[in-house]
Amino acid sequence: MTNLRKCAVIGVGFVGATAAFTLATSGLFTEIILLDANRKKAEGEAADISHGIAFTQPCAVRAGEYTDLSECGLIVIAAGANQKPGETRIELLGRNRVILQSILDHLLPVNQEAILLIVSNPVDLLTYMAQRLSRLPAGQVIGSGTVLDTARLKHLLGQSLGVDSRNVHAFIIGEHGDSELAVWSSANISGVDLDDYCRICGKDASREALHRIYISVRDAAYAIIEGKGATYYGIGLAVRRIAEAIVRDEHSVLPVSSVVSGHYGISDLCLGLPCVVGRNGVQNVLDIPLSAAEQEQLYASAQKMRALLSEIGL
Fold first, then answer.
1. Which residues are catalytic?
2. Quick check: 138 and 115 in contact, CB under 8 A?
3. Which of 61, 201, 245, 267 is the most buried if burial means most Cβ atoms within 10 Å?
4. In which band, very low, low, confident or very high, does the pLDDT at 45 lie, cut at 50, 70 and 90?
5. pLDDT at res. 245
6. What does pTM read for this prediction?
7. For residues 210-231, b (16+ Cβ closer than 10 Å) or e, as one string?
8. Taking every pair of C-alpha atoms in the chain, what is the biggest distance, in angstroms?
9. Main-chain dihedrals φ then ψ at residue 163, nearest 5 degrees
10. Would you say residue 94 has pLDDT above 90?
11. Distance (Å, rounded) from C-alpha 164 to C-alpha 189?
């Protein structure tokens, strides 16, 4: 029997360690277990995080082994090779596929009830692989999808419009990567259509202005990697947000990645799409309205992912 108040993070590099920190300080969990191929790295990260727990809510953070994960209700998989400057997420696939297979070989014998949250890149392809290899129910295997991309869009659009990003309602969907797309057709500011809001407030909502924002979102990771070598704070907070929806059974709508079956005419593929997320993982995938152009872009993103899966025999 699993306990959603117990969590594990597998892989404590920049992303995994930051995710572990955000989860340990969230108040969601009573225990967090860290695993890494480098045991001393896991022990060091666990100790460092533990030393700050006195300033937050109680949570036991420790290094462990796969046998310690039998009761964990949520397992975050952040293990994988780091993305190099100039390297696409897709180029990471070959290196990370082997790592994922090894993790599942060790994990499944001790726990097949936990919700798996895949964070390693390329996240959509690895989420699909994890679900296929594990044979767990589709909703139980989730990728971080375009949750971070959507947050970037809200931030940049909020900056451009001079409004709190929490009042910006818009999605990035599709691949977490170069073929992702912004759903401008349903974007709104607290229920006010984006075009209407810009007209009322005298802001620029031209196609060129919105495209510049989209490009900044799409290429954000590359710019950050060029500047500091890796991205981890944003995705760490995205992991915390997804965990909140699961542990609190919020039924929140988040653009996570999961296996889709017939949505937008796409099947047997993982893409970031708006999903209802709760205690059991992905409970529903939502077909939000798309313009004809957006539908075409999403289909192109799906075809790109399918071609890559075909190349590796899946």
1. 176
2. no
3. 61
4. very high
5. 98
6. 0.95
7. beebbeebbebbbeebeeeebb
8. 59
9. -135, 150
10. no
11. 9
Helices (H), the chain: 14-24, 39-50, 93-107, 123-134, 147-161, 194-201, 207-218, 220-228, 233-247, 292-311
Residue 232 corresponds to which amino acid?
Answer: Y
Quick: pLDDT tens for 196-238: 999 999 998 899 999 999 999 999 999 999 999 989 999 999 9
Give residues with Cβ within 8 angstroms of 285, minimum separation 6: 258, 260, 263, 273, 274, 275
CA distance 246 to 280: 7
Which tokens sit at 302? 């799906």
Candidates 87, 142, 94, 116; CA nearest to 313 is 94
- What SS3 state is found at 28? coil
CA 311 to chain CA centroid, Å, is 24
Spatial contact of 236 and 242, defined as CB atoms under 8 Å apart: no
Assess contact for 231 and 224: CB atoms under 8 A: yes
Residue 174 to residue 152: CA distance in whole angstroms:
15
DSSP notation for 273-295 = --EEEETTEEEEE------HHHH
219 vs 294: CA distance, rounded Å = 19
Q: Is the distance from CB of 172 to CB of 255 less than 8 angstroms? A: yes
Q: What are phi and psi of 35, to 5 degrees?
A: -125, 145
CB within 8 Å of 132: residues ≥ 6 apart: 314
Any idea which residue has 């696409």 for tokens? 88
- Structure tokens of 93? 């696939």
DSSP-assigned letters across all residues of 82-140: PPPTT--TGGGHHHHHHHHHHHHHHHTTT-SSSEEEE-SSSHHHHHHHHHHHH---GGG
Amino acid letter, 183: V
- First vs last Cα of the chain: how many Å apart? 32
